[in-house]
Design a protein that fits this description.
The protein is an alpha+beta fold and 152 residues long. It has two helices and six strands; from the N terminus they run ααββββββ. A hairpin with a 5-residue loop joins strand 3 and strand 4. The chain is elongated. The N and C termini lie far apart (98 Å).
Length: 152
């Protein structure tokens, strides 16, 4: 014997689930899919262009060439700096001990380059900096280089 409530209404299961969780999602139209793909391509091309032009316009780059220890109180660091020939750059040079602790540090200024007799028009110069050290150095490197603001 089953007792049913005559006031209860029987709603089909699919309608009941739709009311609880929402109706079925409509599929994206072909036009919407195409617009999403086009937008993604435009963003990707813009990002690629930004990265390409940003790295091509680096104001100054540097490369460590070598180092030598003169004695327990001096080290020499050889490096090359590439920048616009008329620009002035500053580079932070450091000497390190066997535990990679900084034992010598100096900021050097690299003035404008003479474009004569250089294959790249005076953009790259080779520099040597002698650092005073507080203990024997086993390495010397360029920490960073930057262009000096000409407006100051």
């Amino acid at each position: 014997m089953t007792s049913e409530d005559p006031s209860a209404t029987h709603v089909p299961a699919s309608t009941s689930l739709a009311n609880r969780y929402g109706g079925q999602k409509r599929a994206m139209t072909r036009k919407t899919k195409r617009n999403i793909v086009i937008a993604a391509l435009v963003v990707a091309i813009g990002l690629a262009a930004y990265v390409a032009t940003g790295s091509a316009q680096a104001p100054v780059t540097f490369k460590d060439i070598g180092y030598s220890t003169v004695d327990d109180t001096q080290a020499e660091v050889d490096y090359q700096v590439t920048k616009s020939p008329g620009a002035t750059a500053k580079c932070a040079i450091k000497a390190l001990d066997s535990k990679f602790a900084v034992v010598g540090w100096e900021v050097v200024e690299i003035g404008s380059n003479e474009p004569e007799n250089t294959p790249d028009g005076g953009r790259t110069t080779i520099q040597r900096t002698t650092l005073r050290t507080e203990s024997p150095a086993v390495s010397g490197v360029v920490d960073n280089c930057w262009i000096v603001d000409s407006g100051k």
